[in-house]
Design brief:
With 507 residues, the protein is of the alpha+beta class. Helices cover 37% and strands 20% of the residues.
Length: 507
């Protein structure tokens, strides 16, 4: 099905640093994007008796989403469908009436420190990985739930069934439609899903209850696949209606933003690696089945579920968070350089002068990244950056080096070979990073689209609403037809320098 008349599909796309509402006008095998609202986002620090915690202001986000949808209707006319994606792992506990029962914690809050060790004392880590295939990160949902249980925030046995855990995109959808569910691409980041069956692991949940003291009985809604219609926008919630007065359907898309971004990777065949490049860089492969080996667990690779029964086999790399925090610090210090000036300064700096392990936990928390880069340089016997350009160059080179290591390790663990690296997301605007990624990996880099998450969201929503049809390859053909892709060829002469940088840092 290829609509001859344009249809308008809204994508609610929330990131950890900003959110927006985009409208995709689908016609003749192409998608034209219009942004109807963009707004800032970020965790809000609040003091508690146990120390400072970080929360999301989800009610403000809801207000911004509502305004964005209303603006969409004003600007383009009736909406034919709505899809929702956000970052992963964070959730709200809601009552049977869909009302939040408490604050929504940010994954960057320090409350989960020590939770992985506590879980693995009860259930050995290899046994957990054999089920969920998930990279161990302190902020995974299961560890947040353990922190809730420790703090008394989970419902007691007497209150079973009185609360439902909704991941953020599912929470927004419940406010729009009244439906409660768990879309699997995001649910797979909780640590509670069986990566093979694509549903909650009842055996693991039983072990968590009996052996780890984490009782989630009655807390988890049913899982659904991306592309599933979940309801229509209730008129008492939002006055947004589709053609001919029909209520606007809400479709579960790849609700983890990376799942939507990977669905929009404009690849022609299966032999590609990808980097979804934003606050985080998600680096990996698209597979038909999870890799649940001990070697994969030891390498801390993750098996997150994707659109159309795929698996996103990947590594979380710290991403542009480090750059964004450095810029924030410089601006606080009165150095107000725009991004073009920063990119030009980095381009003029010596390549590979200083590289750091960008995945070191020292770079995770908010703060002055230049101080942390200096410490990492001192610890590895490298010169400290001395200028803004050298710091930005260090961040770009360190990211590219992390991509090199992640792609090569993923291929080795999965038994795959790739012939291209697709970079999608906002980071593709950084030409220096894309070029460094090509040189570091030795692969041609295809950069774009920058709006991959919105495109993937819109196309899966349109297909789920019956507005278009086709498999994942057809959706990607539409992405290619709708996007400008920039290609960067690797410089063979640079290979030895990248090998030397990797040895210098990692031995």
């Amino acid at each position: 099905m290829n609509p001859s008349r344009p249809v308008h599909v809204a994508a609610i796309d929330l990131g950890a640093s900003s959110g927006r509402v985009m409208v995709g006008t689908v016609r003749d095998g192409r998608v034209a994007l219009t942004q109807t609202r963009r707004f800032a986002n970020g965790p809000v620090p609040l003091p508690t008796r146990a120390g400072e915690r970080l929360y999301w202001d989800v009610l403000r986000l809801w207000s911004e989403i509502r305004e964005g949808l209303l603006a969409a209707v004003r600007e383009v006319g009736p909406l034919s469908a709505i899809g929702i994606d956000t970052w992963a792992v964070d959730y709200g506990l809601v009552t049977g009436q869909g009302v939040l029962a408490g604050m929504v914690d940010s994954y960057r809050s320090p409350r989960t420190r020590g939770m992985p060790d506590r879980l693995f004392e009860a259930i050995p880590a290899p046994e957990v990985y054999a089920v969920n295939g998930l990279q161990v990160q302190d902020f995974n949902t299961v560890f947040q739930l353990m922190a809730d249980a420790r703090d008394g925030s989970l419902p007691t046995t007497a209150d079973l069934g009185s609360r439902t855990m909704l991941l953020l995109p599912d929470l927004i959808a419940s406010w729009l439609t009244g439906s409660m569910y768990a879309e699997v691409t995001n649910a797979s980041t909780t640590g509670l899903v069986d990566a093979r069956t694509r549903s909650w692991s009842e055996p693991l949940l039983a072990r968590l209850r009996i052996e780890a003291g984490l009782d989630l009985e009655g807390l988890l809604p049913e899982t659904i696949e991306p592309g599933t219609p979940v309801g229509v926008v209730r008129p008492e919630v939002l006055d947004v209606f589709g053609p001919d007065g029909a209520p606007t359907p809400v479709i579960a898309v790849g609700s983890h933003d990376t799942a939507s971004a990977v669905a929009a990777v404009p690849a022609v065949g299966p032999d590609f690696a990808y980097v979804s490049c934003g606050t985080w860089s998600l680096v990996g492969l698209e597979l038909d089945a999870p890799v649940l080996t001990e070697a994969s667990r030891a390498a801390n690779f993750t098996n997150e579920l994707g659109v159309d029964q795929t698996v996103r086999y990947l590594k979380n790399v710290m991403g542009l968070w480090v750059f964004n925090e450095a810029v924030r610090t410089w601006r606080q210090q009165g150095l107000d350089l725009d991004y073009a000036e920063l990119d030009a300064a980095a381009g003029a700096a010596e390549p590979l002068r200083t590289v750091v392990d960008i995945d070191d936990e020292a770079f995770f928390a908010p703060g002055d990244m230049t101080v942390r880069i200096d410490a990492a340089a001192d610890a590895t016997g490298q010169p400290r950056p001395r200028t803004v350009g050298q710091y930005v160059r260090c961040i770009d080179d360190s990211l590219a080096l992390a991509y090199r290591r992640a792609v090569r390790r993923a291929c080795a663990l999965a038994g795959r070979e790739v012939s291209a690296l697709h970079m999608v997301g906002g980071g593709t605007a950084n030409a220096l990073l894309c070029r460094a990624a090509a040189d570091a990996t030795g692969l041609p880099v295809h950069a774009g689209p920058a709006e991959a998450t919105a495109l993937g969201n819109i196309l899966v929503a349109a297909r789920g609403a019956g507005l278009i049809d086709g498999d994942l390859a057809e959706l990607r053909r539409m992405v290619r037809a709708s996007s400008e892709i920039v290609e960067y060829a690797p410089d063979p002469a640079a290979a030895s320098a990248w090998e030397a940088a990797e040895r210098r840092l990692f031995g």
